[in-house]
């Protein structure tokens, strides 16, 4: 009875392990499939990265000749042609202020008045002294004439005559002193009316009517700045001084352009006016002054502007887009396109000045050649380019100044 049960139990054991082995085989197959797929994906996805299979767009441009302006860039500060602090020249009470803050004034315009009554009274006093001293002088002259007659008659001593002569001279000096005091008082009366010394725009009022103003005050009443014309002071490196001085000595008018802070907007165009007489030893720069008409008042005192000083113009210079210039261990080069075979050649060049997006090339390329301006980082010497959508480079053609191509 026990043996059949034992045999039955021995037969049932392998039937329990069979499903486990099947599941294990299934997952092994799945894993192998995933590994194979990953291997194939890696090789097929990295293959197009190689140059020739991935099509990278490039842009070309023609080498041209142009007149290239050469500028010296600097940061400048707008400075009024005249900046005058309106101050009192006498002591007194400020009675009236006759200007509007910020208005345009002309030289001689009445700006303020100081109480003139003390000076009018002083003038009256000095005029009275003058009349008194003139009367005393007239009487002394009469006595002098009589003493001269008596001295000739030997009726008085010579000392008495000399004393009278000295009195006459003393009174004449007193009259001159009185006349000087009267003239000074008249000038002070003129100073009671404060006028604008120059044409320009007057600033904010610095003192209110009713205050005592004195010649010792340092703040003044207001500031008048001449805005038309206006100047800009800027500094350039000392290395550029010989070239600038050569132009100045030749009486060449150098153009100066003033741009806003972002260098996006041209504010005004003027001319170089003067060069400072010495170099700043701390910064190694020299100050220059340019003058602008400023008829639209776009330049304002103490405004910071970007300055471009036109120092020279290169006639018929060979130029390429700055984006075409590449750097390597061999030096500076550009990729030149062969339009017949649509292959590129690495060409070493010698560059000059760079103005905005254009670079002057002193040697290496000639006008009419085609250079790569975009996509050059995907190219090598001898690489072939084709037009987008064209499978055969020989069928590709180029037209216009700038074309988009694809590196093959």
Describe the structure.
The chain has 408 residues and is an alpha+beta fold. Among the domains are: 2-49; 57-68 and 316-407, conserved putative lor/sdh protein from methanococcus maripaludis s2 fold. The chain has helices at 2-46, 117-152, 158-191, 241-249; strands at residues 57-62, 64-80, 83-86, 92-97, 104-105, 110-114, 193-195, 200-202, 212-213, 222-225, 230-237, 255-259, 266-275, 285-292, 304-321, 326-328, 331-338, 343-348, 350-355, 358-363, 370-374, 385-386, 404-407. Strands 1, 16, 17, 18, 21, 22 and 23 form a 7-stranded antiparallel β-sheet that branches. Strand 19 and strand 20 form a beta hairpin. Residues 1-17, 45-55 and 387-408 have low confidence and may be disordered.
SSE arrangement:
Elements: H1 2-46, E1 57-62, E2 64-80, E3 83-86, E4 92-97, E5 104-105, E6 110-114, H2 117-152, H3 158-191, E7 193-195, E8 200-202, E9 212-213, E10 222-225, E11 230-237, H4 241-249, E12 255-259, E13 266-275, E14 285-292, E15 304-321, E16 326-328, E17 331-338, E18 343-348, E19 350-355, E20 358-363, E21 370-374, E22 385-386, E23 404-407
Antiparallel strand pairs: 1-21, 1-23, 2-11, 2-15, 3-10, 4-6, 4-9, 5-8, 6-7, 8-10, 11-14, 12-13, 12-15, 13-14, 15-20, 16-17, 17-18, 17-21, 19-20, 22-23
Helix pairs in contact: 2-3
What top-tier CATH class of the domain at 57-68 and 316-407 fits best?
Answer: Mainly Beta
What does the largest sheet look like? 7 strands, antiparallel
CATH fold descriptor of the domain at 57-68 and 316-407: conserved putative lor/sdh protein from methanococcus maripaludis s2 fold
- Gross geometry: elongated
Provide the low-confidence segments as ranges. Answer: 1-17, 45-55, 387-408
The percentage helix is 25-40%
DSSP helical segment count: 4
Order of helices and strands: HEEEEEEHHEEEEEHEEEEEEEEEEEE
User: What is the architecture of the domain at 57-68 and 316-407 at the second tier of CATH?
Assistant: Beta Barrel
Total strand segments: 23
CA radius of gyration? 48 Å
- Which structural class matches the secondary elements? alpha+beta
Give the distance, in angstroms, between the N- and C-terminal Cα atoms.
Answer: 86 Å
